[in-house]
Amino acid sequence: MAQLTQKEIDRRMIEWRNLKVLHKKAVEKNKEYKKDKEAYRKRIKDLENIVLSQASQIEDLKLQVEELKQIIFGKAKKEDKPDSNFPNLKHFQDKKEQKKRNKDSYQRKIPEAHEITEIKTHTIDKCKHCSSPLTKKKIIRFYEEDIPLPNKENKKQIKICIEHKVEKGWCKRCKHWHTSIPLPSSKVVLGSHVKLYICYLSILLRISYPQIISLLRDAYGFDISNGEVANILNKMGQRLKPEFERIKKRLQKGKGVHLDETGWRKLYLWVMASIDTDDVLYLAGRNRGNGHIDELIGNNFDKIRISDAYPAYKNKPGIAQQCWAHPHRKVKDLAKSKALTEVKLKHCQKAYEDFSFIYKELRDFIKEPYDKEIRREQKQNLLKQIRVWSKPHINDPKKLKNIKVQFVSYESEWFTCMDYEGVPCDNNKAERMIRPMVIKRKISFGTKTKRTSENFSVLASVFMTYWKKYEGNFFVEIAQLMKVST
């Protein structure tokens, strides 16, 4: 083997030293690259999480904007054609059976004999064309229903004005004047009929003070001021307070109640409606605190209470039943949303179809005659289905996640209607009872003071209860109540 020269040795030593130095630098640089790589990986992961979070927030905001648009502009008009997005739902949707109508049902009912106020006879003797005498004459009857239009003459007949002559005498023994009936504080007073009618116009027909004044003036020739209308409503509210308390007691002792709340000026309006009667109670001008639920149902309430999943109702007395209509509407809105991606939209549509099937089954079971054993089996079957439906999924939007969480958190409260006969699975009755007051709020903007709120609560509760309970004979019954309350 040839011996290396000193020059070659020096060259190789320099090369080795250079490699050693470069290797050391390369190792250090590699360590730096590894650190940077880890940092970049972490940064990329953080940015991906931020993107996912932003995408979720954008989705939530889009859904909120969609909801706000529906609130402001309303939902799109319903089409008669079935929704092509949900072809499987055609078997699950409730269809009201249309009653077959005969020809007479499209015409007004013929009045009874005692309803006829005037008879007009129209005779004919000659032909209208050639003036020849007519033979084989017959009588054809038809009826004209109408109302008298107010004018200067009949306004005096419609408006009642009674002059009371009250005898007064002096008692020598007790040194005191006595009258046959109590005397009012002023010479001219308003009768009970007009007071009752003003309450009816304000509460049930929901018209404003100027409209009430115009109607009384134009139709009856009856002049009244804004102050008098407000005073009548306040005094009538105080007068009917005992009936308000009786309605509350009947509701608390009944089979069960529906509960709901809505905005009322800057505060809220609460409603409590009976499950099986026409009794309804309102509390206006309150906040949204749970103390008002205790005011409505009382501390010892042990009946069924139907409500939505608003947290204030949680842990309140009574046997809770959650409203199925609320989540059903929300899932349906998600299934029709334009704010979701195609993948999530299809997932929500499937979730809506599955939920609708369970909801339809529940409504069908409730309609069946009550049998405790059959109901128990049906309830267990529905529980299994809703547990499967409530399992989290990667494609669940936040809104759907929240709905599923509600079904898990309140699981024992969704099927109370299966344990008792005649208990609905939704809170639709409370919403129907609250809707007229929402319309009134839009017209008159609610009530301003605590006193007017309390009096409105009394009048709305009593008048709505009697209007529903005595349909067709409302004024007679409410007038009788006013006599008893005097």
Which helices and strands occur, and which strands form pairs?
Blueprint: H1 6-73, H2 152-158, E1 168-171, E2 176-179, H3 192-204, H4 209-220, H5 226-239, H6 241-253, E3 256-264, E4 267-274, E5 280-286, H7 291-297, E6 304-307, E7 319-322, H8 325-335, H9 342-367, H10 372-389, H11 398-409, H12 428-444, H13 450-469, H14 474-485
Parallel strand pairs: 3-6, 6-7
Antiparallel strand pairs: 1-2, 3-4, 4-5
Helix pairs in contact: 3-5, 3-13, 5-13, 6-13, 8-9, 9-10
Keywords:
486 residues; 14 helices; alpha/beta; two-stranded antiparallel sheet; 5-stranded mixed beta sheet; 8% strand
Structure commentary:
The protein has about 475 residues and is of the alpha/beta class. It is about 50% helix and about 10% strand. It has a domain at about 240-470. It has helices at about 5-75, 150-160, 190-205, 210-220, 225-240, 240-255, 290-295, 325-335, 340-365, 370-390, 400-410, 430-445, 450-470, 475-485; strands spanning about 170, 175-180, 255-265, 265-275, 280-285, 305, 320. The strands form 2 sheets. A 5-stranded mixed beta sheet has the order 5-4-3-6-7, sandwiched between helices. Strand 3 and strand 4 form a beta hairpin. Helix 3 (about 190-205) crosses helix 13, helix 5 crosses helix 13 and helix 9 (about 340-365) packs antiparallel against helix 10 (about 370-390). It is elongated and about 155 Å long. About 20% of the residues are buried.
